[in-house]
Amino acid sequence: MGYSGLRIIKEALTSQRGWKPVWRDPEPKPDYDILIIGGGGHGLATAFYLAKEHGLTNVAVLEKGYLGGGNVGRNTTIVRANYGLPGNSEFYSHSLKLWEGMERELNFNVMHSQRGVINLFHSDGQRDAAARRGNAMVNQGDDAILLDREGVRAILPYLDFDNLRFPIYGGLYHPRGGTARHDAVAWGYARGADRRGVDLIQNCEVTGIDIDNGRVTGVQTTRGAIRAKKIGIVVAGRSSQVAALAGLRLPIESHVLQAFVTEGLKPCLDHVVTFGMGHFYISQSDKGGLVFGGDLDFYPSYAARGNPPAAEHVMEAGLALMPMIGRAKVLRSWGGIMDMSPDGSPIIDRTPVEGLYLNCGWCYGGFKAVPGSGFSFAHLIATDRPHAPAARYRLDRFATGAGLMDEEGTGSQHNLH
Ligand SMILES: Cc1cc2nc3c(=O)[nH]c(=O)nc-3n(C[C@H](O)[C@H](O)[C@H](O)COP(=O)(O)OP(=O)(O)OC[C@H]3O[C@@H](n4cnc5c(N)ncnc54)[C@H](O)[C@@H]3O)c2cc1C
User: Fold this and answer.
1) pLDDT tens per residue, range 66-120
2) Nearest CA, atom 21, ligand 1
């Protein structure tokens, strides 16, 4: 079923009885060409692009819970292409272009809102770094504007410009950055993949990976054995555990990251703002809640809930930047399990096991990467060649020392970078 304005009018006139389930609920077949383990944003986008770009539809996505129940539905929804290093900047630039065509491509409203991202800086050194990053973004063909203090004040007058410890010197403005509705992105890719014939199999945990003579032959699951010629692992915070089923030890640590949302307020914050000193980022959702987050909880864990010290740290950073939010009531907080790589950049690569492919290491920036990652991973699986924008995301770079340390290096021992 295609979605359109006409369709909405027709359904309104016929008591909304014509809507169909957005995807099928098939039984797993015994055999597929390709299995994607993990029904998060990256797994669903991979399945979609395998079908759309490569005509590969004998594909199943195996998800241990429900589609979109992982990090793709838990993040603070910031979408941007403001990286500084070759290797990352072309990848995120490609991903942002896919975001800009996503709603048309999927015929699905993901509420992508290019409201602009402003990264604040608070010292001369940070200003230099922001200028360098902005130049790299412009050279990559993306947009960046260096704002001085008064330039920031004109857009965000409610910030605490005179904070003695963290005075605001200016900001790097990325107008094409913004937000999107996170779970709608999962639903849109799921619907797009399903419509092209991909089987989306929920409540199906992969418990074993079958290997014969150095080559994958299939998986064991809670819904039985399934054979396949190629298998992609895309399970975010569970990457180390699932890769271990194939005997692989990954350079990944899993850490908790929390997010918070306040009660609904009238529109007061029409950009994404990040605090360059306190690791705090905030935007306002379409329902009016202020959505914000900060740093990791700083110890490895598989718990999808956070701890009070990290929550307190985030609140303090928020109040230092934006005292007005002190009057808003926090309604909810939650956590997600982050797949932290040593250099803060992801891995999209083949593994030493023939037919087994790996996509992980997104740290806490993988939501904006969903379309680019799915596109590049599908290319790798379909053609056995890396997709150019993701060619630096090699698994062996940690052995060779060719790491890709960008932003602040959001690695596994994040506070030490
Ligand atoms: C609080 C928070 C804030 C964030 N903020 C941002 C942000 O503002 N911008 C941004 O770009 N990124 C952000 N991120 C990061 C982003 O959400 C993640 O990097 C990204 O969602 C991870 O990829 P995914 O969507 O595929 O993961 P997930 O949605 O976690 O998908 C992985 C799936 O694999 C499944 N799985 C695991 N093991 C198995 C198994 N054995 N068998 C079958 N299935 C299995 C899981 O159930 C899960 O559904 C944030 C994350 C969190 C938690």
Assistant:
1) 999 999 999 999 999 999 888 999 999 999 999 999 999 999 999 999 999 999 9
2) 72
CATH number at residue 368: 3.50.50.60
Closest by CA to 147, choosing from 134, 160, 163, is: 134
Ligand 1 pocket, 69 CB below 6 A? yes
Q: Quick one: tokens of 52? A: 């759309």
| Residue 22 structural domain | 5-77+183-251+343-416
Number of domains in the chain: 2
Assess whether the C-beta atom of 205 lies below 6 angstroms from ligand 1.
Answer: yes
Determine whether the shortest distance from the Cβ of 255 to ligand 1 is under 6 A.
Answer: no
Report the nearest-CA residue for atom 4 of ligand 1: 75
Ligand 1 lined by 40 (C-beta under 6 Å) = yes
57 and 192 share a domain? yes
Q: What is the CATH number of the domain that holds 295?
A: 3.30.9.10
Q: Ligand 1: which of 364, 370, 377, 407 to mutate, most ligand atoms within 8 Å of CB?
A: 364
Q: Is the CB of 273 under 6 A from ligand 1?
A: no
Q: How confident is the model at residue 304 (pLDDT cuts 50, 70, 90)?
A: confident
Q: Is the pTM of this model over 0.85?
A: yes
Residue 347 inside a domain? The answer is yes
Residue nearest ligand 1's atom 20 by CA: 366
Number of residues assigned to the chain? 417
**Enclosing H/E stretch for 227:** strand 224-233
Which tens digit of pLDDT belongs to each residue from 359-415? 999 998 999 999 999 999 999 999 999 999 999 999 999 888 777 777 666 676 666
Q: Which of 309, 340, 371 is the last residue of a domain?
A: 340
CA distance 293 to 260: 6
349 and 312 within one domain: no
Closest CA to 297 of 332, 257, 337: 257
Ligand 1 centroid distance, CA of 276 (Å)? 25
Same domain? For 212 and 294 the reply is no
Query: How does strand 78-79 pair with strand 289-300?
Result: unpaired
Where among 340, 359, 390 does a domain terminate? 340
